[in-house]
Specification:
The chain is an alpha+beta fold. It has three domains: about 90 residues, PAS domain (Beta-Lactamase), CATH 3.30.450.20; about 80 residues, Helix Hairpins; about 160 residues, Heat Shock Protein 90. Helices cover about 50% and strands about 25% of the residues. The strands form four sheets. It has a five-stranded antiparallel beta sheet with strand order 2-1-7-6-5. A five-stranded mixed beta sheet has the order 9-11-12-14-13. Strands 3-4 form a two-stranded antiparallel sheet. β13 and β14 form a beta hairpin. The longest helix is centred in the N-terminal third of the chain and has 46 residues. The protein is elongated. The model has no long low-confidence stretch (mean pLDDT about 80). One of its GO terms (cellular component) is plasma membrane. It is an enzyme of class 2 (transferase). This is Sensor-like histidine kinase SenX3.
């Protein structure tokens, strides 16, 4: 009897131990699963990070490198970029953070400039180097554009200011000659007007390129915009012997800033007049195509070569600089057209052939009220 009791007790204890072991195994398995899940999440987070992440061990082997780091050329063919390698060595030696700006060996996804932050990472007495990399291409492009803009503004302002100074000197030399005074005073006045117009357009362009929404947006009839723009240019067209013709009426409305839209269309018409021979027509037409209204300004002037067509909307770009100076152009008119159109969720296009004229088209979304 005692033996049986002992046997049953032993079986019971073994059963309890087995249950405890199974419970412990389930808990351990669950923890391993949780750790594995966290590990996968961390790995996925690193791989999908919007910045490049690269980890180097003390043997200078690449332990980890995500997709963005490869796209930006930090690692290429399992090798660190040549400008980063010596900085990694120095980082292991003195454990100081370093910054490196470089150009990828193989440019991908239009990445032309990369900034790498190289810093030490100590874990359990082991030293690693982690490299964070960011695509600086757009920042570099914007900085270059800013420098070009400042240089262009300086040059463009210098021309009329210098002209006024020279004309004033010439005027002072002949103050007793009325015709002499009137001639140079007229030229000074012309240069002063050009300078004032340029400053006004620079201010307008600066506002258009700001991040804030246009303040005076309201429903506007496109036909009224075109009529105002045509009327603004009638005197200039008559003086240049240009036949300014209005065709079609769309009846469409757009949500926009009336003054800015009139200015944009007026700039296109003025541009067409300036680059058209005498007696030639400039046609302004409107057309509704699906959910957009097209405002077209067509001329039969000198046309624009294909190599220049991508650049005509740049600030201060001129195809014919001599003609632009003679007409008093600032080089900002088409840039303003581009930004006004963009601020109204539209686009402006150009079709042109040399010696056959040019057609500029502003495409704006139609406003249909509360429909």
């Amino acid at each position: 009897m005692t033996t049986l009791v002992a046997f049953l007790l032993g079986v019971t204890l073994m059963g309890l131990a087995l249950l405890a072991f199974q419970g412990m195994r389930r808990r351990i398995t669950s923890r391993y699963k949780n750790v594995d899940a966290v590990s996968r999440v961390l790995q996925l987070s690193v791989q999908e990070a919007p910045i490049g992440i690269t980890v180097i061990d003390h043997n200078e082997d690449i332990n980890l490198c995500n997709y963005r780091a490869q796209d930006m050329g930090v690692v290429h063919n399992q090798m660190l970029h040549q400008e980063i390698r010596p900085l990694v060595k120095q980082c292991f030696t003195d454990r100081e953070t370093r910054i490196c700006d470089f150009t990828p060996i193989k440019k991908r996804l239009r990445v032309t400039s990369v900034r790498a932050i190289i810093q030490p990472l100590v874990l359990n007495d082991d030293c690693f180097v982690i490299i964070y990399s960011t695509d600086e291409s757009e920042n570099v492009r914007m900085e270059a554009a800013r420098r070009d803009f400042v240089a262009n503004v300086s040059h463009e302002l210098k021309t009329p200011v210098g002209g006024v100074a020279l004309l004033t000197e010439a005027l002072l030399e002949g103050t007793d000659d009325r015709e002499h005074v009137e001639y140079f005073a007229t030229l000074i006045h012309k240069e002063a007007l050009r300078l004032g117009e340029m400053i006004t357009e620079l201010i307008s362009l600066s506002k258009l390129q700001g991040a804030e929404a246009l303040p005076d947006m309201q429903p506007v009839l496109v036909d009224d915009i075109v009529s105002d723009a045509v009327n603004r240019n009638k005197v200039a067209a008559d003086a240049a012997e240009i036949v300014l013709t209005r065709k079609n009426k769309s009846g469409a409305m757009v949500m926009g800033d009336r003054l800015l839209l009139v200015t944009a269309v007026s700039n296109l018409i003025s541009n067409a007049i300036n680059y058209s021979p005498a007696k030639m027509p400039v046609i302004v037409a409107t057309e509704v195509i699906e959910d957009t209204v097209h405002i077209q300004v067509r001329d039969q002037g000198i046309g624009i070569a294909p190599k220049y067509q991508e650049r005509v909307f740049e600030r201060f770009f001129r195809v014919d600089k001599a003609r632009s100076r003679s007409t008093g152009g600032t080089g900002l008119g088409l840039a303003i057209v581009k930004h006004v159109t963009a601020n109204h969720d539209g686009e402006v296009t150009l079709y042109s052939e040399l010696s056959k004229g040019a057609t500029f088209t502003m495409k704006l979304p139609i406003y249909r009220g509360m429909q």
